[in-house]
Design goal:
Layout lengths: L1 H7 L3 E5 L4 H12 L3 E6 L2 H10 L7 E5 L5 H15 L4 E4 L14 H29 L2 E6 L3 H4 L5 H21 L4 E8 L5 H8 L5 H10 L13 H12 L10 E4 L10
Parallel strand pairs: 1-2, 1-4, 2-3, 4-5, 5-6, 6-7
Length: 266
């Protein structure tokens, strides 16, 4: 723990979608390990709650409302981070939404919104952050994708398409910016007990906790663990990919899915 803390001291990270779920867990762990963090979220009340929850690290924290559909807002967040902390080295792109639907049932507006937040939002976050990383002499980006980018899922055409696009974009970004010393990787979580997952569980009949537990048990390691994967578990993988221990890792996607991606669905 001490070694990791020393490795991240003096580094600054931008975390989009940082007010809740995996983004918040990543921001909290970055602060714990010694980094400065500029955290953004699209809802002011959630950003305020995150700021209060992380108040112990107030000297290394900026928490700002910014919608990933607004490039100017993200660029302003980067400028604020550089003004406060003098540099930007790291990006965690974690903003995302999920709206169910097939190509027959999904409204075109819902398709566009999911793509705009999940895929185009990550593009905008990188577009805002990469120039600052170039000024800092390099950096690392982790894009929060999904196991659904690799395996697909019924009744989620927009979400699956957006997440698949994120994995492809990760590879393109990694190649474009390797010579500048910017590494780009994607994490692909399976069932993680986040507000988004809880919202999906509430759409179904039955007990919410039992639904989440059943989804977790459907993954091979889920029958072993006493609880579903938590955002904090995903944050540990994100921190590794941001740190010097992953210095030779770029353009890759990492599953954290309790073995779901290894399972033949028969």
């Amino acid at each position: 723990m001490a070694r990791l803390t020393e490795e991240l001291a003096g580094r600054t990270a931008l975390v989009t979608g940082g007010a809740t779920g995996i983004g918040f867990a990543a921001a909290a762990l970055l602060l714990e390990r010694g980094a400065a963090v500029a955290l953004t979220g699209h809802r002011e009340d959630q950003v305020a709650a995150a700021r209060e929850a992380l108040a112990a690290h107030a000297d290394r924290l900026l928490a700002m409302p910014a919608d990933v559909r607004d490039l100017a807002a993200l660029e302003a967040a980067v400028r604020a981070a550089e003004a406060r902390f003098e540099r930007l080295d790291l990006l965690v792109s974690a903003a995302g939404i999920q709206i169910p639907g097939t190509v027959l049932t999904a409204a075109e507006d819902d398709w566009q919104r999911v793509i705009d937040v999940n895929l185009s939002g990550a593009f905008r976050a990188c577009k805002a952050a990469v120039p600052a990383m170039l000024r800092a002499g390099g950096g690392a980006i982790v894009i929060v994708s999904s196991i659904q980018a690799l395996l697909g899922k019924r009744n989620g055409v927009a979400y699956v398409a957006a997440k698949g696009g994120l994995n492809a974009m990760t590879r393109a970004l990694a190649l474009d910016h390797a010579e500048a010393g910017i590494r780009v990787n994607a994490v692909c979580p399976g069932v993680v007990d986040t507000p988004m997952l809880r919202e999906a569980a509430r759409r179904l009949p039955g007990d919410e906790d039992q639904t989440v537990a059943a989804w977790a048990r459907a993954q091979p390691l889920g029958v072993h663990h006493a609880r579903p994967c938590r955002p904090e578990d995903v944050a540990e993988l994100i921190l590794f990919l941001l740190g010097p221990g992953a210095a030779h890792v770029t353009g890759s996607e990492f599953r954290i899915d309790d073995g779901l991606g290894a399972k033949l669905a028969l």
